[in-house]
Amino acid sequence: MATQLIDLANLERAALETALAERGHKRFHARQIFQWLYKRGVTDISAMTDLSRALRATLSDQFTIITPQIVSRERSADGTEKFLLRLKDGLQLESVFIPDTPAMTFCISTQVGCAMACAFCLTGKMGLVRHLTAGEIAGQVRVLADALDMRDKKFNIVLMGMGEPLHNYDETMRALRILNDEYGLAMSARRMTLSTVGLLPALEKLAREPLMPNLAISLHAPTDRMRGELVPLNKKYGVADIIAACKRFPLAKRSRITFEYVLLAGVNDAPEDARLLAKLLSGVKSKVNLIPLNAAPGIPFERPSDHVIDQFARILSERGVVVSVRKSRGRDIRAACGQLIVEGQKLSTGQRLAVALR
Ligand code: SAH
User: Fold this and answer.
1) 338 CA to middle of ligand 1, Å?
2) Which one of 51, 142, 252, 347 is most buried, by most CB atoms within 10 A?
3) Is 118's C-beta closer than 6 angstroms to any atom of ligand 1?
4) What is the tally of helices (H) and strands (E) in the chain?
5) pLDDT tens digits for 291-328?
6) What is the pTM of this model?
7) Nearest residue (CA) to ligand 1, atom 12
8) CA distance readout (Å), 57 to 9, 22, 51, 63, 312
């Protein structure tokens, strides 16, 4: 039986050094390989020309580089681009490029589908199909940077695509470390934002990580009664516990936790809800990002009027809360928040079983 090739793109540099050493190669080749793969976008080992021809041949027998493939690419009138990517096993996911927000931003997925089933989110309707590997998460960044010719430019990443990053904790953190590597893309943690619905044990673990991305919490409601209707996970980890964890969260100087709040007409958009939210967040170094609902067929909610949105924002800001309203980007190509869904994902029996067992 052919031995399984090791995917170089799924390894942190230290792990690659070990893998090289175990096969009798010099550890420092890991730096060269990282530079080729991340700084120059070379995904073919035989093209890594500062490695000897003999070494390239041996490495090609031991390693491979797995890169998600672009199936289609759609550009919105506002410049947002949605990429449909195919993974090695044929499953597909979506990643989004959002220009000038004010920085260039890549919105990256951490799972195919999502298990969290938030009431207003289309991805949640898919259920969890599978977790992504670190290589597949970081791979989306490689692919978008290449396709957009942005390898040498500064950009941010937000883990706000498909999936709940803290539900796929280890792979997500490994991906961030790969992206942070000085011989790779060398992205600073300040350019990374992890958005979570509030898986508390994982959030506590995140608080102890050496590499600390910016944190965004999908709150969406100021009370358990209201949040429980929107975010099923709230029945396990309630509002008070999440806020307490946020208060303990070690923040860099001048940095704040973002609280995302999807505004749903007649559900969580009353002036009283804004007042409760301001009260809840007093004492938390926070900012609120209001996200007017991106409506979609199958989503049983509506977007509030601009007047209601403005009023909600004004109540918060009068109470000293830093607030912004998220501009909806790429709605015409269904690339906006909560609109990422890959229709007709066909699962093989093996995949179905693997998902069921998780
Ligand atoms: N699972 C993570 C990250 C993915 S979603 C999380 O929940 O934070 C990124 C943001 O888009 C979340 O705040 C999510 O609640 C929001 N969102 C989901 N569906 C939406 C919709 N239909 N309209 C607007 N925002 C939505």
Assistant:
1) 5
2) 142
3) yes
4) 12, 14
5) 999 988 889 999 999 999 999 999 999 999 999 998 87
6) 0.94
7) 218
8) 18, 17, 10, 10, 62
